[in-house]
Amino acid sequence: MGQDVDRTTFSRRDRQNYRAKVHRCLDALAVMLKEHTFARDEPMTGLEVELNLVAHDLEPSPSGAAVLESMGTSDFQSELGRWNLELNLPPRPLPGDHWRRLERQLLDELATARSSALEHGARLAVIGILPTLEKRHLVAEALSPDSRYTMLNEQMLSARGEPIRLDIAGDDPSGRHDVAPDHLVADFDSIAPEAACTSMQLHLQVPPDSFAAYWNAAQCLAGVQLAVGANSPFLLGSRLWAETRIPLFEQSCDVRTPELRNQGVRPRVWFGERWITSVLDLFTENTRYFPALMPVAQDNDPFAELAAGIAPGLDELRLHNGTIWRWNRPVYDIAGGVPHLRVENRVLPAGPTVVDMVANALFFYGLLRELVEADRPLWSSMSFEAAEENFTTAARHGLDGPLYWPGNGWIRPDELVLRKLLPQAADGLARWGVSADVAERYLGVIERRCVQRRTGASWQLDTVAALEARGADRPAALRGMLTRYLESSAANEPVHDWPVPG
């Protein structure tokens, strides 16, 4: 979806030609996987973080374009909402202390963004869902004016044929809060609710013959990632899931009518339905199940490019893939004229702090390596349905929902992490060549978070509950919580050390 789109209308022939071109790209990729050389050098990682801008009254600030212009750097880009920014850091390897340096770079980049935001009367919020959003903010006029977002809005609403409905029932298995969770039901005439989701996306370049193992392992880990990284418990004033961003994104991008859902048509935000044996399995599912949203076809032919010794761009396949939001997405790309494959992990929310985000990333990368190189693949003893159930349970309940794990049965996420997964993550980081002190620093953050059972989501919930107990109504409590959140987030103290009002 980062590709530019300069069209506004499409004919039936456009759609027919685009479908044929996507299939031709898929055939070319199948040939490449057998005969072409892909990048196999030191695996590279990438990081993207989506951000919010808030005014001094803590409401969303539609100043994104102005802030971008004043920064004047290509590392930041526009995002779907006018109050959103996206930071894309250059790829880097894992070994040594690269990710310690990434923490410092990320702090510097966010400091630059904060300084530019202040020039426009705004502040930076690194959080999964901005808790002060109201329904009046989520309108078509709030979308960024970029042509690709305008086209995406038009095409998704046209495909759905009716307003986008959010229907999310809250849950609180912890029993820590006296007030019952809320139930949010609301209709929208644009895809603006999607802009309420701000995430951290992790990339890992992998060889083609290892892609299936890395993707399967990432699917196994999605529930654990959410449980320890949840940071989005509020939406439109309602207390909902620990990671409400998951159902919000699923529903705000759902172009199916209720009848199509009842028929079993796949959603465009998708966990998937089976373990895979090749990256082709995922791209084939894309072409089989999902019609084009933006059928923009180029004139180039991938087989002609192959014959000329050029790595084909596979533009149509990539554009189509960008309109199917898997939580672990396959990526085909070219760097320096050489094609490569990446797993893009889209599970985690942004925030709460830079050190928390780096800890979440290295916990994931370490476990991923360990699961891929295990004598017996975890997915051989875990059903795909169990992995998906873990994902949903963790999104609902965070650390309070038991997950299924082979060899342990049903176990609370913090216990699973402390007993089993942290040592495995440390071993995996050692396999990557990450220095011992770097691994200790960031895995220590995950350890303390689990020992104290304090995630971004639980801190938000407990802080709002404490402020409401003092007599604040929900809007005032959310503003009070966000004020404290912004201060602690900028200070880069890990969330497990954040105080809760007494």
Structure report:
The termini are far apart. The model has no long low-confidence stretch (mean pLDDT 94). The strands form five sheets. Strands 1, 2, 3, 4, 7, 12 and 13 form a seven-stranded antiparallel β-sheet that branches. Strands 5-6 form a two-stranded antiparallel ribbon. The protein has a two-stranded antiparallel sheet with strand order 8-9. Helix 1 (12-35) packs antiparallel against helix 8 (279-289) and helix 3 (98-119) packs antiparallel against helix 11. Helices cover 45% and strands 17% of the residues. The protein is globular and about 70 Å long. It has 502 residues and is α+β, with helices and mostly antiparallel strands. It has a single domain (36-271, 327-497), classed as Creatine Kinase, Chain A, domain 2 (2-Layer Sandwich), CATH 3.30.590.
**Approximately how much beta-strand content do the residues carry?**
15-25%
CATH topology heading? Creatine Kinase, Chain A, domain 2
CATH first level? Alpha Beta
Shape: globular
Pfam families: GCS2
Protein name: Glutamate--cysteine ligase
GO molecular function, one term: ligase activity, forming carbon-nitrogen bonds
Keywords: Ligase
Notable traits:
502 residues; alpha+beta; Creatine Kinase, Chain A, domain 2; two-stranded antiparallel ribbon; 15 strands; GCL_type2/YbdK_subfam; Glutamate--cysteine ligase; ligase activity, forming carbon-nitrogen bonds
Brief summary:
With 502 residues, the chain is an alpha+beta fold. Helices cover 45% and strands 17% of the residues. It has 16 helices and 15 strands.
